[in-house]
Amino acid sequence: MTTFQIGLPLPVLSADWSAPTESKTLTAATDRNIEPVGPHFLAHARRKRHKRTFSEDDRIQAQTNVKKVEDEDAGEISEPEDPLMLSRDAKDWKGQDHYAVLGLSKYRFKATEDQIKRAHRKKVLKHHPDKKAAAGGTEDDSFFKCIQKATEILSDPVKRRQFDSCDENADVEPPSKKETQKGNFYKLWGKVFEAEGRFSRNQPVPKLGNDKSTKPDVEHFYNFWYNFDSWRSFEYQDEDVPDDNENRDQKRHVERKNQNARRKKKTEDTARLRKLVDDALALDERIKKFRQAEHAQKNKKRLEKEAAAKREAEEAAKAKEEEAKLKAEQEVAEKAAKADGKKAKEAAKNAAKKNKRVVRGATKEANYFHSGGAATAAQIDSALNDTDLIITKIDNEELAALTAKLNGKKDPTEIKQIFLDEVKGLVSAGKLKEGEAKSLA
Fold first, then answer.
1. Where is the composition biased (Basic residues) (predicted)?
2. For 340, left (φ over 0), alpha (ψ -120 to 50), or beta?
């Protein structure tokens, strides 16, 4: 503990702490112990201990602080500085890579506000002109101005978005057809679409997927990109508009020129993106697989349809053949039946003739139904006419039955009785009138 003696003349400072005023002598009857505290005492003690001057201590402390900040951010915000970038002209701030200036090249549009703030602090501690001068370096503040401009752009959401729109270093070059054919389609093109997806108004952006993605997922992916709604603008590349109010015509001319340039670049970017999606679609093996499956399905349906039509045609042909066969069999049967009928008819006709002869013969055997000597010619004609009348009144079956009754009969009286019974039956049936067969009356 250090003891300070109170009682020495001390200057009394004014309110602005800038100049001493009237000196007054302060005395004390006793000594007071004062404890040394605060950063100024620590700096004083450090200088005394290490025997440094104020400038030497400031320089060494600046180096220590830079080293400390670098150690704290070594794992997250740390990348080598390009000598060409360190020698950039601060006036050409539009041509500089703001992310590279702050050491955020690997993050770019993904860098957070906190990362930007810490990167700015780290760069300022390292490249502040005063620190460089204290370290014995040059007092050139050109790169320091680049750092300040990069922080200004990236800390403003509007300006940062304008810069991100034109940040070609964040773009991923589409792979060639040869590179894609090596089996790296999803890996290479996935990075391309991820980089392009930062410009989408609609978030989240669908992923490219892999070879196991379903057809609806793949169709949704390409529909999203063919209807891509981009917020990308190109104000960052505008020609600077004059700030003077005297040349208003020139100012309006430059503004119109910038607007036309933006529209042209927007159109070109839309065409570029459309071609990019077309190229990816043409190289996507899943599209070929889906088309082959659709083609196979169409062929399957067509083959099934053709098979069904063939089967129906075969069944129709078979049915027609069966019908023709049945018809032929029926025709054969009809012909056979017709032939048989004809034969039967002929046989029946022949049998009827034979039966008629038998019946007529029986009339002759019965002496023409005359009892008492030989029958006269008139009696014979009358008996034969009556016999023919009976034959005409009965059908072949009845004729056959009558013939069966007469077969083997020799007795005239018995034969005549058979005829009388036949006439009686015909009369009863209404086929003959009573007394119509005169010889049998």
1. 250-265
2. alpha
Q: What is the DSSP letter of 13?
A: B
Q: Determine the distance from the C-alpha atom of residue 37 to the mean position of all C-alpha atoms in its chain, rounded to a whole number.
A: 74
Which of 18-32, 194-208, 311-325 has maximum average pLDDT?
Answer: 194-208
- Cis ω for the linkage preceding 204 (within 30 of 0): yes
In the prediction, which pLDDT does 32 show? 64
pLDDT, tens digit, for every residue of 253-262? 888 999 999 9
The strand pairing partners of 20, in sequence order, are 13
Is residue 328 within 8 A of residue 334, CB to CB? The reply is: no
In whole angstroms, give the CA distance from residue 77 to residue 103.
Answer: 6
Q: How far apart are CA 402 and CA 414, in angstroms?
A: 13
CB 149 within 8 Å of CB 98:
yes
99-116: average pLDDT: 92
Strands 24-25 and 32-33: unpaired
The β-bridge partners of 13 are: 20
Cα–Cα dist 228/111, whole Å:
24
Q: Where do the domains of the chain lie, and which CATH numbers do they carry? A: 73-169 (1.10.287.110), 171-283 (no CATH), 354-429 (1.10.8.840)
SS3 247: coil
Tell me if the pTM is above 0.90.
no
Q: What is the pLDDT of residue 25?
A: 46
Least confident of 97-101, 194-198, 364-368: 364-368
- Binning the chain into helix, strand and coil, the percentages to the nearest 5 are 70, 5, 30
CA 44 from chain centre, in angstroms, equals: 75
